[in-house]
Each structure stands twice: as C-alpha cells, then as structure tokens.
C-alpha cells in the first residue's frame, strides 16, 4: 500500500545469498517429471522414472496482472540435477506469446546451459554460472538445462504481457539436445 509522504518498507525482498524472493504476491509452482512428457528424447528411460519427481521450481513476483502492457515480472527457476537417459534435466522451453518480447536470465547457483533457437531455426547455447547474464531477444525459443551435480538456480525478468507459448517448440521441435557424452555436456542435432 502506498501512503503519501512516508518512507516505507519495500513490498518485496531478495535474499542475496540465494536470490530467494519474499513479499506479498509471489507465485510458486513446480514441474514434476510426469508433466514433461514428450520433451525428453529417451522415452523408455522416462517411463521407468518416478513421474512425481520434481524437476524444477519457479518463483515469480507479479506486481501487475498477467497480460498488462508495460509491467515487468521477476522470478527465478531452480532445476534439480539429474538426467533422463543421458539428457540433462531442463525446463520445457517456450516462445513468448507476443513474439517480440525479450527477457533477461542470469545464473545464480550451479552450472547450466541456456539453449536458444531463433526464427530462422538457428540454434545456439550459452554457459550459465553464478553471475552469467543472458539477454534473450524476442522471437527466440529459450530453455535451460542443468549440467551440474547440484541444483541450478537462475533469475529471470520479462514483460508482464509476454505470455508463454509452449506449442511452438513442438511444431518443429527443438532441433538440438544437450546430452552427457563421456562425462561432458555436448550439443547434438
Ligand atoms: C521463465 C520460465 C521458467 C520455466 O520464468 O517460465 O524458467 O520454464 P518454462 O516456462 O519453459 O517451463 C521465463 O522464461 N519466463 O518468460
Ligand atoms: Zn521466457
């Protein structure tokens, strides 16, 4: 609540040791393995795993309603360490519903890889580590994989009207995958 001419305590706080968020309207969600059907290549290994296993958790501050033009959302995602077959645990990945909306990601804890795909179908990847900063341009599919043995946490800030389109990535598929080969993360087509 804004009280005229007073010095107030801010509504939101970040615990700078782990970027955990606290405040009034923080949404928390989690994705379990069973909700990620179809995104991992090795379906046999997928079926053999516990569908209730939590793969990632998301915290988001939504100071304005989703869809509001001009607002900003601020959040973080924690991806557990692990693999399905030899493919690292990762987020579903998406395009923004309003295609030109960009986003910042930054590494907080752990080791990861941000995998991107642009409109022309070009794919590339960037290392994520504590302090890495990533500008994700509009019209770019984005997904993050945890390539370490510990949880990977990254921050995100994006426009409140961006929206999430998860179907687009299935139409043509995400043409690259991040797998472990001889102990090292590698990208394969
Ligand atoms: C992030 C993502 C979050 C989860 O907040 O939504 O990391 O990934 P998926 O949405 O792909 O499951 C973001 O990119 N917001 O725009
Ligand atoms: Zn996004």
Can you walk me through this structure?
With 189 residues, this protein is mainly beta. Helices cover 5% and strands 43% of the residues. A 6-stranded antiparallel β-sheet has the order 3-4-5-13-8-11, with no helix packed on it. A hairpin with a 4-residue loop joins strand 1 and strand 2 (20-23). It is globular. It starts with 11 loop residues before the first strand and ends with a strand. The model has no long low-confidence stretch (mean pLDDT 93). The chain binds 5-phospho-D-arabinohydroxamic acid and zinc ion. 5-phospho-D-arabinohydroxamic acid binds at residues 58, 75, 77, 91-94, 103, 142, 156, 158, 162, 164.
């Amino acid at each position: 609540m804004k009280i005229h001419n007073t010095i107030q305590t801010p509504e939101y706080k970040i615990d700078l040791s782990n970027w955990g968020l606290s405040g009034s309207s923080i949404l928390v969600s989690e994705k379990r393995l069973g909700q990620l059907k179809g995104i991992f290549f090795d379906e046999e290994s997928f079926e053999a795993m516990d569908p209730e296993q939590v793969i990632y958790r998301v915290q988001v501050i939504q100071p304005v309603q989703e869809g509001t033009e001009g607002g900003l959302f601020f959040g973080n995602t924690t991806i557990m360490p692990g693999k399905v077959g030899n493919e690292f645990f990762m987020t579903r990945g998406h395009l923004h519903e309003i295609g030109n909306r960009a986003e910042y990601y930054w590494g907080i804890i752990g080791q990861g890889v941000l995998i991107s795909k642009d409109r022309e179908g070009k794919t590339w990847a960037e290392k994520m580590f504590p302090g890495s900063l990533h500008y994700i341009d509009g019209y770019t599919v984005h997904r993050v994989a945890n390539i370490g043995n510990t949880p990977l946490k990254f921050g995100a800030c994006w426009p409140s009207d961006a929206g999430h389109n998860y179907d687009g990535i299935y139409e043509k598929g995400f043409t690259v995958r991040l797998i472990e080969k001889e102990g090292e993360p590698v990208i394969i087509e």
